[in-house]
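Budget justification aside, the reviewers requested a transparent look at the raw inputs and outputs of the sequence design task funded under Objective 1. We therefore reproduce one unedited record. The lines immediately below are the structure tokens for a 179-residue chain.
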């Protein structure tokens, strides 16, 4: 079985059919990334599709010495930022939280706490939110996140610490309002 980098190398050489393997491996992860960043199912589906279109278009830029996961998530990040620019939405604006379908997320537990956490996530800086989504929901290492964001691993760790601190502050603030 070929690893992601080997499959992408085949795609880069022109064997576009191999992209289906990468699609199977990554489309759900990308969709979840976009959903956690935007809280919009249709937009998340569109942006996921855009990532694979970009991969086809820029397949020759992939260097086999690079890890594939950070490369595809860097494309995803750029697609997300481009979407905001295209729609003239400032990345720094708060994103309104839509109600989430708990069955789709596979969530089981205290719905009220989950809703508060979800709202708190929407209130922190987008750069912090992105780091938390990549770390907690995508299970990426700090080094991979650094490659995606083009910052050092130590800088990612610092920002992750600040993100958690900010999230905790917003969560407790919202929790107090709901009591």
């Amino acid at each position: 079985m070929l690893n992601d980098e080997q499959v992408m190398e085949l795609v880069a050489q022109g064997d576009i059919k191999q992209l289906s393997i990468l699609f199977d491996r990554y489309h759900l992860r990308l969709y979840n990334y976009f959903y956690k960043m935007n809280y919009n199912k249709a937009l998340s589906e569109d942006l996921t599709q855009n990532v694979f279109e970009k991969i086809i278009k820029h397949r020759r830029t992939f260097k086999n010495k690079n890890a594939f996961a950070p490369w595809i998530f860097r494309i995803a990040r750029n697609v997300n930022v481009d979407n905001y620019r295209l729609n003239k939405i400032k990345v720094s604006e708060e994103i309104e939280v839509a109600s989430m379908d708990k069955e789709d997320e596979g969530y089981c537990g205290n719905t009220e706490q989950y809703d508060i956490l979800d709202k708190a996530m929407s209130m922190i800086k987008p750069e912090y939110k992105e780091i938390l989504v990549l770390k907690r929901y995508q299970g990426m290492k700090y080094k991979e996140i650094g490659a995606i964001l083009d910052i050092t691993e130590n800088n990612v760790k610092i920002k992750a610490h600040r993100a958690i601190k900010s999230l905790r502050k917003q969560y407790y603030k919202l929790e107090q309002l709901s009591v």
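The domain at 104-179 is CATH 1.10.10.10 (Arc Repressor Mutant, subunit A). The CA atoms of residues 132 and 160 lie 7 Å apart. Computational costs for records of this kind are itemized in the attached budget.
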